[in-house]
Amino acid sequence: MSVGPPYDAGAIILAGGNSRRMGTNKCLLPYQGQPLIQHVVHQLRPLFATLTVSTNTPETYAFLELPMVSDRVTGQGPLAGIGAALARATSPWNFVVAADMPEISRDLIEKLAEHLPGNRCVVPVTESGHYEPLFAFYHQSLLPHIEEALHGGKFRMQDFLRHMESATVPVCTGRLPNLNTPSDYALSTKKNSQKPT
Hints:
Layout: E1 7-14, E2 30-31, E3 34-35, H1 36-44, E4 48-54, E5 68-69, H2 78-88, E6 93-98, H3 106-113, E7 121-125, E8 135-139, H4 143-151, H5 157-163, E9 167-170, H6 182-193
Parallel strand pairs: 1-4, 1-6, 4-5, 7-9
Antiparallel strand pairs: 2-3, 6-8, 7-8
Helix pairs in contact: 2-4
């Protein structure tokens, strides 16, 4: 596994969820002149060998011209999406990121990648012990454990990662913001417009 980009790993973009709090499909919201998910794709493309979108509505994201993977069983949350994508992945290691996380921290990805040898998942964790599971590396060797959890009705990512004794990298609370509400989106786009060009 290379310690810097391009990483010898794939990237999986999770484009699930119902966007209830946003009121519209947040992955398609305009961000820097393009759909938010495309903004995420452009940031990841130089870093990883392959990109895959995990979604149960592949027709929605056909414009990305990327491989799509759907959950085997819907309604089981992000753990099911990660499992389905890992099962189809061509790289043993894969970086998983939520499609509603507009700014990808290369520095944090590098810190996570440093911990890959000897581990099966590497995840940021906040001061309060909360895992950030949708900005993390997962190895294909986790697949049997994911299947076991899903079959047992255990869908919570926090519980799964604790059970796996995941390797962790500390982050400050709020370091990995995602866009859940219209106010989140308005604040993020405002901050972005104020950045020097």
